[in-house]
Amino acid sequence: MSDTFILNGKETPYTPGQMILEAAKVGGIEIPTLCYLKGSTPTGACRICLVEVKGARSLMAACSTPVTPGMEVFTETALVHQARKLNVELLLSSGTHNCLTCEANGNCRLQDLAYFYKITDLRFEEKAASDIYPKEDRNPLIVRDFSRCILCGRCVQACNEVMVNRAISQGYRGKESKIVTGGDLPYHESECVFCGQCVEVCPVGALTEKKAKGLGRPWEIKKIRTTCPYCGVGCQQWLHVKDGKIVKVTAVEDAQPNMGRLCVKGRFAYDFIYSEERLKTPLIREANGEFREASWDEALDLVAEKFKEIIKKDGPDAIAGVSCARSINEDSYQMQKFFRAVIGTNNIDHCART
Ligand code: SF4
Ligand code: SF4
Ligand code: SF4
Ligand code: FES
C-alpha cells in the first residue's frame, strides 16, 4: 500500500520525500509559486505557496515542506488566500511595478497573481529599488532591471544548480539586497557566460532579452517548436515569432535532451537568419581569386571533379575531411561513410574535437 496524506479532505497518495507542492500537483491541485524552480533545491523565498497544515503553528511553504504520513493539508482556506494576497502586495511594493512600461507585461507571474487576487491599489508604499541600483543595460543580450526584481532567487538557482555556471548569488542585506555577480560586476565583466538561463526562469520583468525589446507582446507572438540548428545535441527550443520574424528564443521545458536549458548560441545567436551577409548560394573562386555565385549542381560537379583529379594523381589519402559540429549526427555519420567508403581514406575528423 502506498503512503497517503489528506489533501483538502481527500486521501491522496504521495512518494516519500516529496514536498507538498509536488504531491498536490500529482493529486490534481495546483498551488501558485514564484520562487520554486523544478529540479533545484527549494529556497522558500517568496511565501506564495503557503498552505495550512493541521497542527502546525503557522502556514507552511508547500515547496519546501515534505509530506508526512497522514498529514492534513488545506490549500484553499481563507487564511491561505489572505496570506498569499498579503505576500503579493508586499512583493509589489518591494520595487517599482509599473506594468505598462515593462517587457514582461502579459508574461509575469507577479502580475498574474495580482490580477488573481484583484489587487488594484497598493496598500504599502513602493520602494524605489531603482534609486539604489540603476538598470544594467550595458551588454548586448540581457537587461537587468533591479527595480522589478522580487529577489525570488530563481536566477541564482538556475545559474548555479541547473547550468552550474556559478556566476551569480544573493548579495548585500535588508533593503539593499541584490542578485550579484562575483565582485558585483556588470554581467559582461563577470563570470557570466550569457547562457540566458536566468532570463528564462525570471518570473517577472527583472531580467529580459534585450534584442526582443519592443518587438512584440506575448499575446502577439506565435510560438513554434524547433530543434536548435547549432550543434548535434539537438536542443528543443521555442521560436517566438511575430509577423514571420523571430523575436526571441526560449527552451522547451521538460523536453529531451536539454530539459529547458539552452546555451548562448541557441538562445541568442539567431540574427544570422536575417543577415545581409548570409550566403544563400554556393560561391566558386575563379582563377583571378574572385568569387562568383554558382548553382549547387555546378559547385558539386566541380568538387567531385577535383576529388577525382587528386585521387588519380596522389591517391585517396591526399584528401581529408572535417565534418561540421553544427551538422546533425546523421550527416556527420554520412560524411565519414563517404570518406571511408567512397573516397577510400580514413582521413576524416570532426571539428568538435578541437
Ligand atoms: S515585473 Fe511584472 S508586475 Fe512588475 S512591472 Fe513588470 S509586468 Fe508588472
Ligand atoms: S546568463 Fe547564464 S551564466 Fe550568466 S548569470 Fe544568467 S544563468 Fe548565469
Ligand atoms: S532577477 Fe528575476 S529570477 Fe532573479 S531574483 Fe530577481 S526576480 Fe527572481
Ligand atoms: S514557491 Fe514556495 S516559497 Fe516560493
Overall mean confidence score, pLDDT = 94
Largest sheet: 5 strands, mixed
What is the CATH class name of the domain at 4-76? Alpha Beta
**What string, H for helix and E for strand, traces the elements in order?**
EEHEEEHHHEHEEHEEEEHEEHEHE
CATH topology of the domain at 4-76: Ubiquitin-like (UB roll)
Spatial strand arrangement across the major sheet: 2-1-5-3-4
Show unreliable segments.
none
What can be said about this structure in brief?
It contains nine helices and 16 strands. The chain has about 350 residues and is an alpha+beta fold.
Describe the structure.
By secondary structure, the chain is of the alpha+beta class. Among the domains are: 4-76, Ubiquitin-like (UB roll), CATH 3.10.20.740; 217-278, ADC-like domains (N-terminal domain of TfIIb, Single Sheet); 283-353, no CATH class. Helix content is 25%, strand content 18%. The chain contains nine helices and 16 strands. It has helices spanning 20-26, 78-92, 109-116, 129-132, 154-162, 197-201, 264-268, 296-314, 329-343, and strands at residues 4-7, 10-13, 50-53, 60-61, 72-74, 142-144, 168-171, 178-181, 207-209, 222-227, 236-242, 245-251, 283-285, 291-293, 321-323, 348-350. It has a five-stranded mixed beta sheet with strand order 2-1-5-3-4, sandwiched between helices. A three-stranded antiparallel beta sheet has the order 10-11-12. A hairpin with an 8-residue loop joins strand 10 (222-227) and strand 11. It is elongated. The N and C termini lie far apart (54 Å). The model has no long low-confidence stretch (mean pLDDT 94).
